[in-house]
Design goal:
heterodimer; A: Rossmann fold; de novo design (two linked rop proteins); 7-stranded parallel β-sheet; B: Rossmann fold; 5'-3' DNA helicase activity (chain A)
Chain lengths: 641, 157
């Protein structure tokens, strides 16, 4: 049986194998076959496997093929909704057609991606806002609701991606009436989940997976125990996402929405209880007032320290009082309507959470806050998720496969496996098929100011102007901070004869479309542009990075890991900060060469790479590109592309 | 103070791709030696003729394999406390115990160097180079250095 299966793997990747016959232009690579064999082995032995597969290995096929051939129940989780769709609509059908055409597959997204018929009806009848744009969006949604079969908001193109209507026509765990809902028979969320339950292979995203694992309330949780194989693509994101979900948070927005819902129910059904309205308005006011105690501009910080300041202590008292008042009043209305019962449950939960996030003396957690223009969120993040996650993996009867182009640091997986608490995981490292020495040049310019020097921003702008001239546009400028990106954008916009695209002016997807269409554009981006951006060919010849992507020391998750590291008696810079920066940098660098024929130049304007001893860890972890420090050499190379 | 003159034989050539980068056998072996001294936790100053040569040495060190990485800086870059290896055509501001000489004629700042207790020099394999090395040898001896000469071991590349 085993021999047969391994035989079938090499057969299906062979020159005239099933994949080559079904997929035009398919050519298996040795690394791909190696990975498929390792995945097959992990599935057979119910083992854990971490695979680093460099760009261009073809890792998607390498895990899909053995997963399909095994004939078991499989969950594949990807980094984002966009990648989820790409996998489900592009890669999966090809492999399925080649190997198991009858297999049932399903795409499952988070609740907020599906139309809620009940909320559309309620909010359509009593619109919470009465301005024309809101009303016209609602009517567009209603028109679409009669046409859609699965209610996936992604197909809804008649309104803007960020329309204000969306929260009113989708549901949250909080406001879902679940079994009491009159529209339950047609519920799109329920239908999507039912389909998922029946499928052999489900495609989800990491957020959905962990929301479910941690909270057991997104509905496919009952699935995980029955799943034989769990595969994470873009698995380098797992430690951060898992930490987020194994923690807890309290958001003023949830309280605000609850108050609005109670007021609406008072208007609709409970007019005899004016106290209810009053209590909800008081809590709404007090929670919004508490936001005003934080700085006006969005910020994040340590909640343990912040919660001790006098104005915060007062604000907490006011909110608690209002919570108690609303609790007492709402209790009197219990069982009068389904909506008010649901509101009461939410109220109890939110009140409990609020009390919990204010008990900041608990050990083993990091307490932090962040604010947006109108709201604030208080977070509790575990210092380490290794015990929790490791236990889930151990107790499950499944194979867990983690793959990404960037999980190792200095040829070593320990950093990753210890974060996740899976020390016994098998590991495999697959090189990239690219000839980096000839395809890519890597420069750290001479005499560049140190990154904390104010002169660095101007120096970066001036160098960008020079190099973009040589590359004739076709450049990504990646930044570690939004502030520096904006400064550089201002400095170069008028000086450059190529179109300049800046993150934030429109959606990421549209910016990338414009970048490809314009052919000689320059794109400026931070965070999300370091990952998952795939521009192939000569549209991209130059990637400039402003500095090594060390996470900001006030980053709460980083603080938590540093604290945990110190508790273990280890040195945090070596064991936490450098590995994190190495993985981020590998992601950013990965944007440049996407194909065997791609060529390009990487310029990192951070002299620390050359002058600090830890530069060695970075150099050992990056692809082996042709290195230089000489800008004339860089320009000559660029002009030849 | 001790000074070692490393003798380059005709066996010791720079790697093939070095020529295009103007890297002579002398420069290459000085960089290899620098890598070795850095691994012994020594702080180095590589004394070069001028900025052009500094850039050649800088680029060559930067191209060393990642597992022979040598953190280094040119004057005016890097941390204020300096990196382990400095390349300079002028006397360094930092105290550095090890001096690796790449200048043909003895730099006139020799007397002003701070804290140097180890001098490395080279005897190239060409006539002009040899004559210049002999001259430096003589001057260092007059200055009271303890001089030794050594063949570069063949095992080093």
């Amino acid at each position: 049986m085993n021999i047969e299966l391994s035989d079938s793997i090499s057969k299906c990747f062979s020159e005239n194998g099933a994949l080559a016959q079904a997929i035009p232009g398919f050519k298996a690579r040795q690394a791909q076959l190696d990975m498929a064999t390792a995945v097959r082995g992990a599935i057979k032995d119910k083992a854990q496997l971490v695979v680093e597969a460099g760009t261009g290995t073809g890792k998607t096929f390498a895990y899909l093929a053995p997963a399909l051939l095994a004939g078991k129940k499989v969950i594949v989780s990807t980094g984002t909704k966009a990648l989820q769709e790409q996998l489900f609509h592009r890669d999966l059908p090809l492999v399925k057609k080649a190997l198991r055409p009858m297999m049932k597959t399903a795409l499952l997204k988070g609740r907020s991606n599906y139309l809620c018929i009940n909320r559309l009806e309620v909010n359509g009848e009593h619109p919470p806002y009465d301005d024309p744009s809101f009303l016209s969006d609602i009517s567009n949604v209603r028109k679409w609701s009669s046409e859609t079969s699965d209610g996936d908001i992604g197909e809804l193109t008649s309104i803007e991606e960020n329309s204000r209507v969306l929260p009113f026509v989708t549901s949250t765990v909080d406001n879902c009436l679940s079994k009491d809902c009159p529209n339950i028979a047609d519920c799109h969320v329920m239908n999507a989940r039912k389909k998922a339950l029946e499928a052999d292979l489900i495609v989800v995203n990491h957020h959905l997976f962990f929301a479910d694992l941690a909270l057991k309330d997104t509905g496919f949780g009952e699935l995980i125990p029955d799943t034989d194989v769990i595969i994470f693509d873009e698995a380098h994101q797992i430690p951060d996402i898992a930490s987020e979900y194994f923690g807890e948070h309290f958001s003023s927005r949830q309280v605000f929405e609850l108050c609005k819902d109670i007021q609406a129910e008072y208007q609709a059904q409970l007019r005899d209880m004016p106290q209810l309205n009053k209590a909800a308005m008081t809590l709404e006011k007090n929670i919004l007032d508490m936001r005003l105690v934080f700085a006006e501009d969005p910020e994040r910080g340590n909640w343990r320290d912040k919660s001790k300041s006098d104005d915060i202590v007062n604000a907490i008292q006011y909110v608690l009082k209002a919570f108690n008042f609303l609790y007492d009043v709402t209790k009197l209305a219990i069982s009068r309507t389904e909506t008010i019962d649901n509101c009461f449950e939410r109220l109890v939960q939110l009140k409990g959470k609020f009390e919990k996030v204010n008990q900041t003396q608990e050990n083993g957690y990091s307490y932090w806050f962040d604010t947006t223009k109108r709201h604030f969120t208080l977070h509790i993040t575990p210092l380490s998720i290794a015990d929790k996650f490791g236990a889930i993996v151990d107790e499950s009867n499944s194979s867990w496969i983690f793959t990404s182009a960037t999980v190792s640091v200095d040829d070593n997986f320990d950093h990753y496996t210890s974060l996740l608490g899976i020390p016994d995981a098998r590991t495999q490292m697959l090189g990239s098929p690219f000839d980096y020495q000839n395809q890519a040049m890597f420069c750290v310019p001479r005499y560049f100011p140190e990154p904390n020097d104010k002169a660095a921003v101007r120096a970066f702008s001036e160098l960008a102007l020079e190099l973009v001239e040589a590359s004739r546009g076709r450049a990504f400028l990646l930044f570690t901070s939004h502030r520096v990106m904006t400064l550089v954008a201002k400095m170069i916009e008028d000086e450059i004869k190529y179109p300049v695209l800046v993150q934030g002016t429109t959606s990421k997807r549209l910016l990338l479309e414009q970048f490809t269409k314009l052919k000689h554009a320059v794109l400026l981006g931070t965070g999300s542009f370091w990952e998952g951006v795939d521009v192939r060919g000569d549209m991209l010849s130059l990637v400039m990075i402003d500095k090594l992507p060390f996470a900001s020391p006030d980053e709460p998750l980083l603080q938590a890991r540093i604290e945990d590291c110190k508790l273990k008696g280890l040195e945090p810079f070596q064991n936490v900060q450098i590995p994190q920066a190495v993985i981020s940098l590998k992601q950013g660098v990965g944007r440049l060469i996407r194909d065997v024929t791609d060529k390009g130049v990487l310029v990192i304007c951070d002299p620390r790479l050359v002058t600090r001893q830890y530069g060695e860890v970075f150099m050992r972890s990056l692809p082996n590109m042709k290195r230089t420090r000489d800008l004339d050499t860089v320009k000559t190379f660029l002009k030849g592309l | 103070m001790n000074a070692i003159f490393w003798i380059l034989s005709d066996q010791q050539q720079a790697p093939a791709h070095a020529k295009a980068a103007n890297v002579t056998a002398h420069i290459h072996y000085a960089c290899v030696l620098a890598a070795d001294l850095y691994r012994q936790n020594k702080k180095l100053l590589i004394g070069v003729e001028n900025q052009d040569q500094a850039h050649i040495v800088d680029d060559w060190l930067w191209q060393f394999e990642a597992d022979r990485f040598i953190p280094h800086n040119l004057p005016g870059e890097g941390p204020h406390y300096g990196s382990p290896v400095e390349i300079n055509w002028e006397p360094s501001q930092q105290r550095r115990g090890c001096f690796v000489n790449m200048c043909q004629t003895l730099p006139d700042y020799v007397g002003k160097l701070k804290g140097v207790n180890e001098w490395h020099d080279f005897v190239p394999n060409d006539d002009v180079g040899k004559a210049a090395a002999r001259e430096r040898y003589k001057l260092l001896k007059q200055a009271g250095f303890n001089l030794t000469t050594n063949q570069i071991p063949d095992s080093i590349v």
